[in-house]
Write a structure and sequence with these properties.
279 residues; alpha+beta; 2 domains; four-stranded antiparallel β-sheet; 24% helix; 40% strand
Length: 279
């Protein structure tokens, strides 16, 4: 069954409605045997739901933002000291279920992602498509609304092709060349990837890399896979003692969230670690 609209207990529905009415962004998972309820509320509910699946179940999911044009698709976040009005996407509520295995992992990851997108496409004014590259899923907006509220086709920023000259550089420097190439094509300023994981700046590894007229998304994914995972400490039964666990090179270690600022030609790509698996 995977990921589907949930019929929640009355208390759960009431709590979610109250929190949503108060404008409090949240993302939570309530487990019940071999099922779990995923509830999210916020300006980017698809991001929230995907991130919760990443954090809770170790799924590799990237999400890219639509371009926000229609005035009813955004709302006021706050006013800066200089008087500038800062807008965010209009908040929405998702409440869905996932089916689990006995060990707490997802029963069917592919179906979970498919049903997440179906839920989003049914409830939001955008349409998402799914790219699947070796089990790494990317949710990509393919439609948005124009100034008059009409649904229009959208060319995702990372669909565009880029060329990165061959060279040996830090991964973050390759990523900067990628975003510069996109900015030249689109006029959109794109910041990328300045995330610290365990106190270490992502993209600090030096690698040889190039891209020749390649979709930016594909090149970015190759860069993510060029950065090794981080080793980590696991507590032992003896108090105050831990042992080092080496990173598994066979799994995905990183994913991204690309968010674009409504009313501004600016987007940010945030890279984060994918946990080892179900909690």
């Amino acid at each position: 069954m995977g990921f589907r609209t949930a019929v929640l207990p009355a208390v759960g529905v009431a709590l979610s409605v109250v929190l949503a009415a108060q404008g409090q962004e949240f993302a939570r998972v309530l487990r019940d045997g071999e099922q779990a309820t995923v509830s999210v509320f916020g300006p980017r509910p698809v991001d929230l739901a995907a991130q919760k699946l990443v954090d809770e179940f170790g799924v590799g999911i990237n999400v890219e933002d639509p371009i926000y044009v229609y005035r009813d698709d955004v709302q006021l976040s706050h006013v800066t000291a200089s008087g500038k009005r800062v807008m965010v996407p209009r908040a929405a509520l998702f409440e869905v279920r996932v089916d689990l295995r006995a060990d707490g992992s997802l029963l069917d990851v592919r179906q979970v992602v498919r049903d997440l997108v179906d839920t989003a496409n049914a409830q939001m004014p955008y349409l998402y498509r799914i790219d699947n590259d070796g089990g790494m899923f990317t949710l990509i907006p393919s439609r948005t609304r124009d100034e008059r509220g009409r649904s229009i086709a959208l060319t995702p920023i990372l669909d565009r092709h880029v060329t990165i000259p061959p060279g040996t550089r830090k991964i973050s420097e390759h990523a900067n060349l990628l975003t510069q190439a996109l900015q030249q094509q689109t006029g959109v300023r794109i910041s990328c990837c300045q995330s610290h994981v365990g106190g270490i700046l992502w993209g600090s590894t030096v690698v040889s890399f190039e891209a020749q007229d390649e979709p930016a998304r594909s090149a970015l994914l190759r860069l993510l896979r060029s950065e090794p995972g981080r080793d980590y400490l696991v507590p032992t039964a003896q108090a105050g003692v831990s042992h080092l666990v080496k990173s598994d090179p066979r799994r995905e270690h990183w994913h991204w969230m690309m968010r674009c600022q409504p009313g501004a030609s600016w987007c940010f790509i945030e890279v984060a670690a994918i946990p080892e698996g179900p909690k």
